[in-house]
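This part of the workshop introduces the protein records we will be handling. To make this concrete, we reproduce a full record directly below.
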Amino acid sequence: MSEREGRGEEQRRGQGEGRGKREGGGEETGRNRREALRAFQEGIREGGRRVEEALLNFGVKGIVLEAKVFGMVCGCAGFQTDTRGIQAEEVEVLKEDLGKLLASVGESLGIRPDFIYARKLPGSEEVVALTVRELCDICKEEFAGSNASPRPDIIVLRK
């Protein structure tokens, strides 16, 4: 078993232990959880709106199709907007502004902005996603040594 798989297994075991504690608590606790979830969902929607409004203010005629928060098996977490109508050249020009914006949106959702990037449609110059990612310890080590893009379809906005 690799180090990455071992850490993932430890995290899964830890999550299972907490389930018993979460299941109790009655109606009041359930209501509080639903309210917290609704507030979090609204934060995601607001993040997507902020990105789309900022793009328009920057003069980019792109749209945000979807905004989401994700968690990866390795331990990374992040916020991503799926976009259309944005070209890589526009992202390159607005690199600093987009980096600040996405960092702010990520922080408002409790995501530490370790790595901020745009993803292009492979073989194209269209940007299909803007992402802010909080890196796990393993990925921090992998990204630490280089300022180069990890893949050809990635435009690094901030690292």
Notes: The CA atoms of residues 74 and 136 lie 7 Å apart. The chain has five helices and five strands. The beta strands are 63-71, 77-87, 115-120, 126-134, 154-158.
